[in-house]
Automatic annotation (TrEMBL):
This is Transporter. GO terms for cellular component: cell outer membrane. Belongs to the OmpP1/FadL family. It is a multi-pass membrane protein. InterPro entries: OMPP1/FadL/TodX. The keyword Secreted does not apply. It comes from Dechloromonas agitata. One of its GO terms (molecular function) is long-chain fatty acid transporting porin activity. It holds the Pfam family Toluene_X.
Amino acid sequence: MNKLTLRTLPALLLAVFSGAASAAAFQLWEQNASGLGTAYAGSAAVADNASTIFYNPAGMSELTGYQVSVGVTGVGPSYTFRNDGSTLAGNNGGDAGGWHAVPNLYLSGRLTDKLSLGLGISAPFGLATEYDSGWVGRAQTIKSEVRTINYNPSVAYRLNDKVSLGFGVNYQKIDAELTNAGGVLKGDDSTWGWNAGALFTLSPAMRVGLSYRSSMKYTLEGTLNGATPVRADVELPDTAILSVWQQVSDRWEAMGDLSYTRWNSLKSLNVISRATGNAIPPAGETFNYDNAWRIAWGAAYKASEMAKIKFGIAYDRTPVRDADRSARVPDNSRLWLSLGGQWNAGRHGKVDLGYSYLYVRDPDINMTKNGTTLRGSYDASAHIVGLQYSVGF
């Protein structure tokens, strides 16, 4: 089966559900826009719309009737390179970042007092960097693009007034393209995973959420330079989240988040010829990622019966080691500074608007590959804006 033959609907969906990385490496936290204003603090405990399906499916037990939540976030990273002794002549590559949209759609319904069902469609991972073709690092990379789309049917069951449990199945598709001056590597695949969560209502004013998303194991199949059939095994990481939400007063809510992502599942991308079974080392990539964690705190202030103001801060530790940083993913640890608002129109639904500025510690690079050395540093940052509409019936 030729997996690179165009299949119209999946190809269109993958084109829509693409995005540039905003969290560490090429993970995307932006699975709703309603959490953007609080830097996604409390993501597994807030459960105020159907997007809880992604962060903690047990949160559907907090929703009444039938719920729809749809949104989009615009992710705009910037990576500008400053050369400092690279071996090839050329320019600095321009800005390798750029704006990309990350949409989402969630549906949930409470069937009984205890049982709820839902479906989420999202993009958990994404990468998009592209340099000028004549830049000093062209032998190592020009374009890097990873797109995913995830279908997540889920169920939640309320055990009692204190405890709810949730479980979901994930069917995820990936499409990747990596290029440099020497060639083009393309491949795609689909796979299955799962997610689960628990929500503990300690009091009417406090909830604690625990959730877990499994790793996703792919065997990418495609071509090298449009001719040589190749494959490569890739395992994208699993993530665990601990969240707290608290109603501090009639007007104030506070929330916190601690997450841990096991990026050490991604050590390398070994490209294998499907015809001979032999490795093609120049086409591969070395990652050697460490595990990473993220911590966030946020708050919301009820300014009126219809309006909330949100703000938050987060620290996102990179899994990328300094010695293994590549121009494909010029990542480093980052600080999120977030602000948002919500307009609640009652039976007509809620609209959330959020913004985050990501201050990224300038990444240095000293990578030798394909007979060349790329040496220098980056000015890196990102802007994220998001809009979400949620309504119940």
